[in-house]
């Protein structure tokens, strides 16, 4: 098999891995394809559920005895330790596979060492150091390496950079189809963050609706001075809620939710301790920040965002926004990683180079 065909198999394994989003975390998303000694695909698998079989095991189970003498294409270095399941290296060695092609190395100290174990067992190992495999692993790697979750800033805007619709139009900027996409993603992540301005203006529920919700994200409001109305929808019983406020506030009337006190500098809350708390307390992998513009500017200034997910509607706001998202985006160092159409909206994904 030539190099391009092999790379294409690894990229097919990425597509498999992505199906685990929402159920595999806090473990990494991993996909695996196994070919027999003639290069014919005989097994496919991905890490489906946290605590259950890893991708390699699911693919080996499908491949059966024909894996002997074959090759495994796996997006991440096979794990080498007994965790909730036995080491994948052991299963690969037991299958008498002859070669393992690895998309990227494991940044996790506990699980790494798989390459050496495979080599010591006489298996040929090739590490591709592939950019797309690294992108797939990025949320997990960020958490392991920094103690911070992967932060996606998501918003809907008009063509001229406003987060508000033209006066007289529907309050929803994006199409129904785009809103549905957001609900699906909410059902796959760990936490949603908004500023208190959004809670007061829109009274959102911030729940995953109209789709299969694999997770119930924690709702977090950045509310330094405890201005959130007690009757706001974010305090309903559909999901837990955390209010992040300035240290030293009288929190006695907020017994209906959890409070996290944050240090501040000239009235601006430091948000890194909040994100660190989410990782240490809840093993959070993915956070989605849903606005508004004031909160986004603080997140960008504090260099805490990893990705932008922007829904650009075909409308144009009839007033110049106070904070223009087009201008803000130009100030960030980003790479566009995806462009699509959803309903009438253009959907853009940018990776932020921190
Ligand atoms: N199109 C969209 O996707 C979208 C999404 C969300 C919201 N919106 C719209 O945006 C508008 C609300 O946005 P906004 O910019 O006014 O409000 P916001 O960003 O939701 O909230 C801003 C407030 O949150 C607090 N805050 C946020 N980060 C902080 C930090 N790091 N340190 C200290 N305080 C912090 C401050 O509260 P204090 O004032 O108490 O200090 C600040 O005034 C609404 O009209 C809403 O409809 C649109």
Main sheet properties? 9 strands, mixed
Report the order of strands and helices.
HEEHEHEHEHEHEHEEEEEHEHEHEE
Instruction: Give the proportion of residues in helices.
Output: 25-40%
Rg over CA atoms, rounded to whole Å, is: 23 Å
Beta strand %: 15-25%
* Tally of individual helices: 10
Work out the oligomeric state of the chains in this entry: single chain
Mean pLDDT: 96
Give every kind of bound small molecule, once each.
Answer: NADP nicotinamide-adenine-dinucleotide phosphate
Measure the end-to-end span.
37 Å
Q: Strand sequence of the main sheet, in spatial order? A: 10-9-8-7-13-6-14-16-15
What is the tally of beta strands?
16
Give start-end ranges of low-pLDDT stretches.
none
- Spatial shape: elongated
* Class of secondary structure makeup: alpha/beta
Task: Please explain how this structure is put together.
- A nine-stranded mixed beta sheet has the order 10-9-8-7-13-6-14-16-15. Strands 2-1-3-4-5 form a five-stranded mixed beta sheet, with helices on both faces.
- The protein is elongated.
- The model has no long low-confidence stretch (mean pLDDT 96).
- The chain has helices at 3-18, 55-63, 88-94, 114-120, 131-146, 176-186, 196-202, 272-282, 293-301, 325-330, and strands at 31-35, 41-46, 71-76, 99-104, 124-127, 150-157, 191-195, 218-222, 241-246, 258-262, 264-265, 268-269, 286-289, 307-312, 334-342, 345-352.
- The longest helix is centred in the N-terminal third of the chain and has 16 residues, at 3-18.
- The chain contains ten helices and 16 strands.
- The chain is of the alpha/beta class.
- Residues 155-156, 163-164, 173, 194-198, 201-202, 222, 224-225, 227, 268-269, 271, 290-295, 298 line the site of NADP nicotinamide-adenine-dinucleotide phosphate (NAP).
- Residues 155-156, 163-164, 173, 194-198, 201-202, 222, 224-225, 227, 268-269, 271, 290-295, 298 line the site of NADP nicotinamide-adenine-dinucleotide phosphate.
């Amino acid at each position: 098999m030539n190099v391009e065909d092999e790379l294409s198999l690894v990229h097919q394994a990425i597509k498999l891995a992505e199906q685990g989003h929402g159920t595999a975390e806090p473990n990494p998303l991993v996909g695996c394809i196994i070919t027999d000694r003639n290069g014919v695909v005989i097994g496919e698998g991905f890490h489906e559920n946290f605590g259950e079989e890893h991708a390699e095991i699911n693919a080996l189970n499908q491949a059966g005895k024909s894996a002997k003498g074959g090759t495994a294409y796996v997006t991440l270095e096979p794990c080498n330790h007994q965790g909730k399941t036995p080491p994948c290296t052991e299963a690969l060695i037991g299958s008498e596979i002859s070669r393992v092609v690895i998309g990227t190395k494991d940044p996790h100290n506990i699980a790494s060492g798989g390459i050496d174990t495979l080599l010591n067992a006489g298996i040929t190992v090739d590490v591709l150091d592939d950019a797309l495999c690294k992108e797939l692993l990025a949320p997990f790697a960020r958490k392991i390496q920094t103690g911070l979750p992967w932060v996606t800033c998501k918003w809907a805007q008009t063509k001229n950079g406003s987060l508000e619709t033209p006066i007289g139009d529907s309050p929803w900027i994006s199409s129904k189809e785009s809103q549905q996409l957001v609900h699906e993603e909410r059902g796959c992540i760990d936490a949603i963050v908004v500023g208190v301005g959004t809670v007061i203006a829109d009274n959102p529920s911030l729940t995953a609706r109209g789709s299969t919700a694999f997770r119930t994200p924690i709702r977090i409001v950045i509310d330094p001075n405890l201005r959130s109305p007690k009757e706001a929808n974010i305090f309903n019983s559909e999901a837990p809620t955390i209010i992040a406020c300035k240290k030293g506030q009288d929190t006695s009337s907020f017994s209906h939710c959890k409070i996290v006190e944050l240090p501040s500098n000239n009235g601006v809350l430091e948000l890194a301790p909040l994100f660190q708390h989410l990782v240490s307390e809840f093993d959070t992998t993915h956070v989605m920040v849903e606005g508004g513009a004031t909160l986004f500017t603080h997140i960008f200034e504090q260099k805490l965002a990893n990705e932008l997910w922007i829904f650009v509607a075909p409308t144009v706001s009839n007033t110049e926004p106070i904070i223009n998202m087009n201008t803000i985006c130009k100030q960030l160092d980003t790479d566009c990683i995806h462009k699509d159409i959803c309903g009438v909206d253009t959907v853009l994904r940018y990776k932020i180079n921190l």
